[in-house]
Write a structure and sequence with these properties.
Blueprint lengths: L15 H4 L9 E6 L5 H9 L4 E6 L2 H17 L9 E5 L2 H8 L5 E7 L17 H10 E11 L2 H13 L3 E3 L2 H6 L3 H6 L2 H8 L5 E7 L1
Parallel strand pairs: 1-2, 1-4, 2-3, 4-5
Antiparallel strand pairs: 5-7, 6-7
The structure holds S-adenosylmethionine.
Length: 212
């Protein structure tokens, strides 16, 4: 069930080699796609940043199994070039276990793309961006690290921006800075949810924040 997870007591206990067979001694995961869904954006990250290790974190077992199989198939297809050795998917509850996987200041970038909106007020505490969790994200992020958020739900976007701006450890990038980031155009349709919004000609709301 979604309630029982095996999780490491501390980051040193994680068997990264089982996820990244070609990992180098001392190499660490730098990018985390939180709630990665079917992994479309994770694949894009792997292609854009061959030198970096990216991890997708997904709570639904069928979905994370799908991404694990997807990555394995890409690796097999590209066995001659060694592509996609730098991406992997982990089934976990990212709202609970991030500090079990990542040490302080480890992550350079975190992505929250089209997170579940949890529209009802009573469910707001389940939103993956909330005041308490922002401090945990700040802990695993390095100084100057970036948090990327994208949603098609305007109310959720406003919620995210309000909470991030209230938090002392984040500042929002200006529109100019956000547009200059080479990742920005990929946020609109690399992920399955993003592609759906593009097909339906829906709105996208982007906000990127720097860890101070
Ligand atoms: N980011 C993907 C995209 O853009 O296509 C998926 C978006 S989907 C609306 C949100 C995803 O977050 C779902 O796959 C859900 O299972 C996952 N999720 C929700 N809460 C989570 C949690 N606490 N930890 C990990 N994944 C979570």
């Amino acid at each position: 069930a979604d309630h029982s997870f095996d999780y490491p007591a501390r980051p040193e206990d994680v068997d990264w080699r089982s996820m990244y067979p070609s990992i180098q001694q001392g190499q660490q995961v730098s990018f985390a796609d939180v709630g990665c869904g079917y992994g479309g954006f994770l694949v894009t990250l792997g292609e854009m940043f061959p030198e970096k290790l990216s991890i997708g974190m997904e709570i639904r077992v069928k979905v994370s199994d799908y991404v694990v199989d997807r990555v394995a198939a890409l690796r097999r297809r590209c066995a001659d070039t060694g592509a996609y050795q730098n991406i992997a998917c982990l089934r976990t509850n990212a709202m609970k276990y991030l500090p079990n996987y990542f040490s302080k200041g480890q992550l350079e970038k975190m992505f929250f793309l089209y997170p579940d909106p949890h529209f009802k007020r009573a469910k707001h505490k389940w939103r993956i961006i909330n005041q308490a969790l922002l401090s945990e994200y700040a802990y695993v992020l390095r100084k100057g690290g970036l948090v990327y958020t994208m949603t098609d739900v305007e109310d959720l976007h406003k919620w995210i921006v309000t909470h991030m701006e209230e938090h002392p450890l984040y500042e929002r990038l200006t529109e100019e800075e956000a547009n200059a980031d080479p990742i920005t155009p990929k946020l609109y349709q690399s992920s399955e949810e993003g592609a759906k919004v593009v097909r339906n000609k829906g709105d996208h709301f982007l906000a990127i924040f720097r860890r101070l």
